Amino acid sequence: MPQAIVAIDQGTTSTRCMLLDQRGRALAFEQKEHRQFYPQPGWVEHDPVEIWQNTQEVIARALNKAGLNAVDVVAVGVTNQRETIVVWERSTGRPIHPAIVWQDTRTAALCAQLSSVGGQDRFRAKTGLPIATYFSGPKLQWLMDHVEGARVRAQKGELLCGTIDSWLIWNLTGGVHVTDPTNASRTLLMNLSTLDWDEDLLAIMNIPRAMLPEIRSSSEIYGHAQGLLANVPVAGDLGDQQAALFGQNCCNIGDAKNTYGTGCFMLLNTGHVAVPSRHGLLTTVAYGLGSEPPVYALEGSVAVSGALVQWLRDNLGLIQHAAEVEVLANTVSDNGGIYIVPAFSGLFAPYWRSDARGAIVGLTRYANKGHFARATLEATAYQSREIFDAMREETGQALTTLKVDGGMAMNETLMQFQADILGVTVIRPMMSETTALGAAYTAGLAVGFWKDTQELGKLWNEDRVWEPRMDEEKRIKLFAGWKKAVTRTYGWIDDIAT
User: Fold this and answer.
1) Rounded CA gap, 361 and 459, in Å?
2) Which end of the chain is less crowded, N or C, counting CB atoms within 10 A of the terminal residue's CB?
3) What 3-state DSSP class applies to 39?
4) What single-letter DSSP state applies at residue 95?
């Protein structure tokens, strides 16, 4: 039987499991969606127990499909939706509250309070991040403030917390409580220089250190699995976007990738230097392999990309299945003057405006559902252009190519428009599940399944390339319209309530 790596990819809307052989081929792939809860406007929650149950199910199904057992698996790698936070009881493993998802904006007032002294960039020098509802530290503070007795219990060591990677690894191993620098760097609690929890930040947010996981590298053996994967080393841990960067073989300075999922995330490898951002980007850890120095990245985050297609489907009923958006978009030749700015939870990079809300502008009687579909796709490309431009400004690099992955990278109309509006070459790899691939790679490196990143680079293969076809005058005009549309979203939330 072939030896394999199990990669668990726990995302915002579903959990995936991929089995990968030594040649980088997928032996099996399974996926299961979990429920989304919206208890109040702006609040988004998941059930951590459901996520863990789904994880076990997709692992079992993938092993069965490939005809493999635990003895055929050499390691497990985990990748996850990053800023989503879980708090659970050490003794029972029972969550004390639903997971608060990265999209959730309930901490807006808390973030405004934190920003009142020193501004939104108060912690940027230490963390590489602005103060925003996106990040998990304020979410954890909110839980400590609003779940009765939580802070006292946490101080006594009765409660544990972590992003979804920590939750899964704790359950997989029967109690190993760890995270890696890519996830920890998204909390507003980790110091980018020391790669450890920062005592000053913990004190400011009044978060007990006793509940936090140990920060380990992205590629090492943390412990061994129990249950279905008994005795298999759990050896890889990366936040999903960093996993996609690694899975795309972006291991050289200047390499960039864009992942098109529920949100849209572009990362640029900056090597062993943490580059401070002056243009609204995030400075983050890209990965850390064993005892090697960490590699850093600049990141631009778009909150809503694939989620906008879901909105067309679920809220407006313009399509029945997400894939239909491309067909509908191609019934028209352009956007009919419509721009959709999906600031459902405010604007992320490079604006960081929590007061913004979504807008559809440029409507006339001429507009039809085809124009809505095309504007939906274009919104993702425009938002990606904003981040790409910021990265060029930040680094002074030309950035002539962009590697792409994620579900929407299969949308060829979107990919062509992305190349057009950027004016650069867009490249899609053969293996589209690059997030799971990155998790598999880190786990495999930790146990010697692969030797080094050079060997991994030989596994990467190109699938499709899009060259820009749009003339410069049209590109400038369309993007100017987008920039004007964005300004129409500002200031819709005048008074941020607790």
Assistant:
1) 44
2) N
3) coil
4) B
